[in-house]
């Protein structure tokens, strides 16, 4: 199957210290060897009709579905997930195999 992505779209509750959540997430994934990469971002266009209120996205890449399963079942993930979920008004999570449709350009040597 190859690489797998774990994608989370979230809307934080009013009053949540988002920077603290981001720091916690960054620390968590930095300690988890099965996480190949971690990216996050905040919506910049604010098209409510399209975003349905979601403001942030978190994307984790794993080498395999087994690595994703190991991450999801890890005690550190479980501990952080409680804090993370308590900070959210709503969330959508999708896990999918990566299909590379356009590779990044090669960097000059």
Automatic annotation (TrEMBL):
**Domain of life of the native organism:** Eukaryota
Gene3D superfamilies this protein is in?
3.30.70.100
- Taxonomic lineage from the root: Eukaryota, Viridiplantae, Streptophyta, Embryophyta, Tracheophyta
A Pfam family hit:
Dabb
Stress-response A/B barrel domain location: 4-96
UniProt organism field: Eragrostis curvula (weeping love grass)
What interactions and quaternary structure are annotated? Homodimer.
Q: What is this protein called?
A: Stress-response A/B barrel domain-containing protein
- Annotated InterPro entries: Dabb, Dimeric_a/b-barrel, HS1/DABB1-like
């Amino acid at each position: 199957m190859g690489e797998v992505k774990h994608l989370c779209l979230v809307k934080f509750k009013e009053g949540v210290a988002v920077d603290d959540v981001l720091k916690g997430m960054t620390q968590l994934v930095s300690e988890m060897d099965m996480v190949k990469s971690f990216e996050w971002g905040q919506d910049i266009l604010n098209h409510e009709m399209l975003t349905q209120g979601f403001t942030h996205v978190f994307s984790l890449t794993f080498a395999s579905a087994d690595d994703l399963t190991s991450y999801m079942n890890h005690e550190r993930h479980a501990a952080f997930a409680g804090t993370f979920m308590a900070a959210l008004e709503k969330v959508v999570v999708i896990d999918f195999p990566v299909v590379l449709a356009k590779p990044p350009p090669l960097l000059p040597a």
